[in-house]
Amino acid sequence: MTTRVALVGASGKLGRIIGSVIEQLDGFETVAVLGSSSGQDELDGVDLIVDASTPASSAEVVRAAAERGTNLLVGTSGWSAERIDQVRPVIAEAGIGVLFVPNFSLGSVLGTVLATLAAPFFGSIEIVEAHQHTKIDSPSGTAVRTAELIAAARTAQGPVDAPHTDQRARGQQVAGIPVHALRRPGVIAKQEVILSGAGESLSIVHDTVQPAAAYAPGIRLALPYARDLRGIAIGLENVIDLGIRPRT
Questions:
Q1: Do 114 and 137 belong together in one domain?
Q2: Which residues form the catalytic set?
């Protein structure tokens, strides 16, 4: 049986990559392509909605999916744990599955997992993320997810040592972790987690060079998982076995 997909934000960078993956994926077919001028009635009658729109409109896509009882894969950035909590009741009432993916790159997921495993052993942790100047949100969804997981991994140790956070140059606090966002031409996506302790430091860096090649494997894994999901899952670490227990 073919899974009928509605792709929201199909003309964007991520949307085009997702659309290309669906074209080549057995058992999936894009039957509706939605842009900023499309009506929500175009979401009717599909088996899975994929959201690659904008942070400003993504919440409406979630609500539209809930109204139709249709599972949803969210690839749009900007979904913090706090924002996801706001739509949990809507998703639960609808009885649908929603997979939020901050980053489809398997390397990015591994970088976040490694940082999470290392977090309890270092008192100072900061994140520097860089994206091209056209990215409209900051910090990135990947950095937000990384900071949230690091904070959760340090429950026993408590907050990281982050002095002078009242100064704007010290970055934005996300779950108690300073995050610094760079927006500049000549870069696709890069994240560095810097963990420091007495006499040493550890840097975990992930750099996306070719988005289509980097994201395609994760998208292929995420589509069937989102189709069959019930409830909420956050991140590709739910889809692949990385030896950790995801926080949802």
A1: yes
A2: 131, 135
